[in-house]
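As a next step, we paired sequence with structure tokens, yielding the entry below.
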Amino acid sequence: MNESIRVPEVASQPLPYTLRQLLVYMLGLGTWGFGGPVALVGMMYRDLVERRGWISDEDYKEGLALAQLMPGPLAAQLAIYLGYVHYRILGATLVGLAFVLPSFCMVIALGAVYLAYGGIGWMQAVFYGVGAAVMGIIAMSAYKLSSKNLGKDKLLWAIFLLSAAFTVATESELVSVFLGSGLLVWLVRTRPKFKGKLNSMALAGPVLAVSMFGLVEWPKLLELGAFFAYAGSFVFGSGLAIVPFLYSGVVQEHHWLNDRQFLDAVAVAMITPGPVVITTAFIGFLVAGFWGAVVAGVATFVPCYLFTILPAPYFKKYGKRPGIVAFVDGVTAAAIGAIAGAVLVIGQRSISDWLTAAMALGTVAILWRFKKAPEPLIVLLAALIGWALYPGLRVG
């Protein structure tokens, strides 16, 4: 039994690191790892592959490919996979917790401060500035994602534009748009002959899961858990892809938060290290206190955890099949379009005057000119500007 869960190289030679050492590293990365998913992924390669030699280049690349292929926040899924490489399910579970826990604790603390002092002027002033900067960051993220993932593929660009237009027109997102986009690209690129049972079974799973979460009435915590598990199941590549999903459900459908509170929740995720999707824990805290944060956070990350450990043993064999790659490309194009549309939808409410407009445009200009500009520093500067100027604007 032991042999089935061990990697052949483990049996022949000792590992260059212990699970405890990997956990300490991931705990540290989750504490000071600013810069978003691309930066975090780069840090893991630099530290674990190049400097320490704990993970082979091949294992790292396979983990990165799986993280890009499956729904879920990119950096968190890669961390989980790297924990799985040599220590299997125990390693994946503990590494995932170590990576997410620091930012979760920070979000809980910020949530408590926000609820206690949200009505005080300085808190409103800080988020007034931060919200404008966040809009600029999301806009640039949508641009980078589209440039990187869509290339010159006309079909993907068409899906992107239609998804963005749908988001702006309806101020909401539908999972059917994402799934339909994936199916369209799959059909166009692979021209399947529908032999066998694999295709229908593979598509039936997510459809049944979505239907199950959509039809059942839950008490408050279960309702939160169901919604965030549903949202967390359709985040491809970047944590920011979850923003339009959350806005549609949290603000438009359930009315748990208003527009300003939602933008503040995204801002909190921007100013804390670790994965951007930790914003779900902040939202859960505002809706149902500490246990709301726990339920929302767990529900968001459990899907990405499962989407990593379940296919991991088979990924080498099946992960590069054209049909799977085509489906994910279509879903990704639709998700990026939704992010672009969400910029316009949320921006109509968060850009309220000349100063917020200038700060949003200034953020875009800085990120455009300085490719490696640290986003947390930009958000901090925006907070200071808001804190200094907001009271005067309110009086005026």
User: Anything to note?
Assistant: The first strand starts at residue 72 and ends at 73. The beta strands are 72-73, 236-237. The chain has two domains: 9-96, 117-395.
